[in-house]
Amino acid sequence: MTVPELYTFLNEKIPPSLSCEWDNDGLMCCPEPNREVRRVLICLDATAEMVEKAIDGKFDVILTHHPLVFHKLPALEPSDNVAKKLIDLCRAGIAVMSFHTRLDALDGGVNDMLALLLGLKDTVPFGEGNIGRVGTLGKPLQFVDFIALVKEKLGCPAVVTARSRDTVHRVAVLGGNGSDDVPLAKAAGADTYLSGEIAFHHLSDAPECGMNLVVAGHYYTEAPVLRVLSLFVRAFEEGIETVIAQSNTTVTY
């Protein structure tokens, strides 16, 4: 199967209609449309490290969550880091596909994976574009026990919290940067809101707003969905090798 055929298949699985209007995702780079897809590198970002890994490993496609090209490029010349990566990818004949907010909103996508890992039940969408999820724990937990659950399930070594109440029962989740959706999480009835990034003013206001806030890191709240992307690719064709890669630039000190 070729690169465009894989992209068509993934578009059916992760439809563009779910994307936010401001987003720019999809087929970022396709220098060889007739290239057969045998190896796919799956990662959150097409960093320079991941591009080098794909070239050295003779991958045919890099599949990412965050778009490789988000803003308009003024020129395709190597002094710009995004342009340089595109040049290197084109020389190597490697395609890049990115599925961003549509993968956030997708049934079974970023936020459903978060809800599943935390054991939330009866989840429903909330937030801009219905990207986030809000649901109920099987039984209420003490706040410190919920934090331990988050660290265990997401693999994050530390979290930032703003505590407003002692127990956690109805939880809203939004992977990545969910700062703008703090009021919407509260309106959805959440007593606790988990995201990858939340602005300081929301954290400082948490005691007054009556909702616990938990910041687990952008990477850690989105990385679980990479397994979903791998399963999609394997469903496209069993013989394709998929490799899920973690960037070494994601370091916790």
Proportion in β-strands: 15-25%
Radius of gyration: 19 Å
Largest sheet: 6 strands, mixed
The CATH topology of the largest domain comes to: Udp-n-acetylmuramoylalanyl-d-glutamate--2,6- Diaminopimelate Ligase, Chain: A, domain 1
Shape: elongated
Overall strand count: 11
Global structural class: alpha/beta
Order of helices and strands: HEEHEHEHHEEHEEHEHEHHE
Q: Under the CATH scheme, which class of the largest domain?
A: Alpha Beta
Question: Mind telling me which CATH architecture of the largest domain this is?
Answer: 3-Layer(aba) Sandwich
How many helices? The count is 10
CATH superfamily of the largest domain: NIF3 (NGG1p interacting factor 3)-like
Euclidean distance between termini CA atoms? 43 Å
**How many discrete structural domains?**
2
Enumerate the spans where pLDDT stays under 50 for 5 or more consecutive residues.
none
Strand adjacency order, main sheet: 5-6-8-9-10-7
Helix content: 25-40%
Write a structural description.
- The protein is α/β, with parallel strands linked by helices and 253 residues long.
- The chain folds into two domains: 3-99, NIF3 (NGG1p interacting factor 3)-like (Udp-n-acetylmuramoylalanyl-d-glutamate--2,6- Diaminopimelate Ligase, Chain: A, domain 1, 3-Layer(aba) Sandwich); 107-222, NIF3 (NGG1p interacting factor 3)-like (Udp-n-acetylmuramoylalanyl-d-glutamate--2,6- Diaminopimelate Ligase, Chain: A, domain 1, 3-Layer(aba) Sandwich), CATH 3.40.1390.
- The chain is built from ten helices and eleven strands.
- A six-stranded mixed β-sheet has the order 5-6-8-9-10-7. It has a five-stranded mixed β-sheet with strand order 1-4-3-2-11, sandwiched between helices.
- β5 (121-126) and β6 form a beta hairpin.
